Fold this protein.
Amino acid sequence: MPVTNVLKNKSGKIIFFLKSLCFFLLLSIISPVSAMKPEWGFWAHRRINRLAVFRLPAEMQVFFKTNIDFLTENAVNPDRRRYAVVGEAERHFIDLDVYGDSALHILPRYWKDAVAKIGEDSLRKHGIVPWHLQTAAFQLTEAFRTKDASKILRLSADLGHYVADAHVPLHTTRNYNGQLTKQEGIHAFWESRLPELFADDYNLWIGEPHYIEDVSKEVWRIVAESHAASDSVFLFEKQLTESFDPDKKYSYELRNNVLTRTYSREFSERFHDMLKGQVERRMKASVAIVGDLWYTCWINAGQPNLDEIAGLATTIADKKEEAAEQQSWLQRLLKVRSESDN
Ligand SMILES: [Zn+2]
């Protein structure tokens, strides 16, 4: 092949690669969650973790308040990891309807029994949030027991995230984004758009935490409650859409300098009214359970004295780990694109 052709070919490939990369990056800017199940908005996750701190008893307050910014910022870590860590994505949801109407009676409460009965691949495919919450609580208890400040913080932030996800009705159905009922977008509508518009008026204050006697029973109760609420989410959106001027259902807003189609304020208000405080109740319940679980893990670990480790938490080691994680995320991203371009 003549040299000029080789050069052309090479530069063509490079340009194609760069174009693809730009396109992918642009996509991730326009719609960071388009390729996966969307989430409580980042705002709500952060808020839930932050508010949970204020519920803790005096013995936990110094440690948790000293590190409240870490717990707030890292409330969204599990979502960031979904790109990079195999096995992460399924921890955020469970498609209960995949298992039929009596899913909650069929599914074993404990992971080992569930694996024996259903098989691990199948479980992971349809989401494992109720089992993973139990694992996460166990890990946090161990971190308290060993008084490992960094671990306590990281695991507390993570646990807060999974608790909040389990409270979202649309995290418990395979029709998680209304894609099976022509209601695409309903997921982010419920858990991002509505809190963004209305959560300033929510009363999310709850008193002191309660000890959870049976963590397993509690997480299944939460998931059952979320699932029971999902019917009205779909129904009300459908009813409202049918009675609403189709030209007024959506509006365009500038987000990060990108013109984005979103549910109009008027449509959002009407939907929010129809839900009669559902988003607020689920968010408030999330704050309650996050605090309750942190507290329960600490009690189960023997109520270790946290005051003496309050200042040790965000160590250099932690930051290194975080940096490495982000690096691997980027590497994977680049690797995936360059492979598929060949
Ligand atoms: Zn999540």
Q: What stands out?
A: The CA atoms of residues 211 and 299 lie 8 Å apart. The chain has two domains: 1-30, 39-341. The domain at 39-341 is CATH 1.10.575.10 (P1 Nuclease).
